[in-house]
């Protein structure tokens, strides 16, 4: 089912990126903006773009033979012209299954290496964000849910709602204006995170991490608070109280594990959100990661790069959902796989 879902979603993206207006824009970007319609059609036809969509999708996957065009002057154009395959092997099947993801016309580089490098940058950002966001959210949610309706609960709930209701492009701009702008005078951090790709420091990495973490933690905290409040009213919690078990032991030994079942699913959902949701933050702080690459590929109609980004996104979503389902079984003893 995961494989079928991945193929269907990838085909939808492939179909949308290969619509004629996109292909026409691609031809003019690579040729001349004053190209005639005949010249555009000739450029697209020579490179296999005018063929049937299913045939093109099969070529991209590597289950159909790649295109080849021989020009009148003897020039040979092949689908795998920019791959690392030997010259004699650049005529057969050449697609994702063969390890060839295409060539970026915008960055003039192999797509697989380009995506891997940008994905590594975003992976570093995601890792730091999760280390900051998840513990903060769980602490806030547990403290708020322990005593529902108390002053602490209301204060932490208000804080959680405020962080979630504040978009990243608002909080990010405010952080830059307050903590890195010369207008205010608090030059504690660097507004640009470009140098963090090679050397992440407290000065150049704090603002983007804080911007993402604050926005994401509110939702996890609210889910944790609701789950914790529900667990604290359960019968076995009341029984533990009547037996004289101390309140800290009730929270840590009896309530916490059951209260973390629902937040675990929400936490796993943060990975695909972070992978594609960092677009604004990476663009705002000029951090050249996966989201930045997506913006550049979409803005410059870089079809092969867009397809590779989409495949990676689909794979991450499906993988995190699988891990979430498996983890749910171990956290909740009432659920078993038959």
Description:
This protein is mostly helical and 338 residues long. Helices cover 66% and strands 3% of the residues. The strands form 2 sheets. The chain has a two-stranded antiparallel sheet with strand order 1-2. Strands 3-4 form a two-stranded antiparallel ribbon. Helix 1 packs antiparallel against helix 14 (303-331), helix 2 packs across helix 3 (37-46) and helix 9 runs antiparallel to helix 10. It is elongated and about 90 Å long. The chain starts with a helix and ends in a 7-residue tail after the last helix.
> Strand portion, in percent?
under 5%
As residue ranges, the low-confidence spans are: none
How are the strands of the largest sheet arranged? 1-2
Mean pLDDT value: 81
Structural shape: elongated
Structural class: mainly alpha
Fraction in helix: 55-70%
Largest sheet properties = 2 strands, antiparallel
Distance between the termini: 18 Å
Order of helices and strands: HHHHEEEEHHHHHHHHHH
Number of strands: 4
Number of helices: 14
Radius of gyration: 25 Å
Q: Count the domains.
A: 2
Topology:
Layout: H1 2-17, H2 20-30, H3 37-46, H4 53-61, E1 68-70, E2 76-78, E3 103-104, E4 109-110, H5 111-146, H6 151-165, H7 168-179, H8 202-231, H9 235-242, H10 247-259, H11 261-277, H12 279-284, H13 290-299, H14 303-331
Antiparallel strand pairs: 1-2, 3-4
Helix pairs in contact: 1-14, 2-3, 5-6, 5-8, 5-11, 5-13, 5-14, 6-8, 7-8, 8-10, 8-11, 9-10, 11-14, 13-14
Short summary of the structure?
The protein is mainly α and 338 residues long. Helices cover 66% and strands 3% of the residues. The protein has a two-stranded antiparallel sheet.
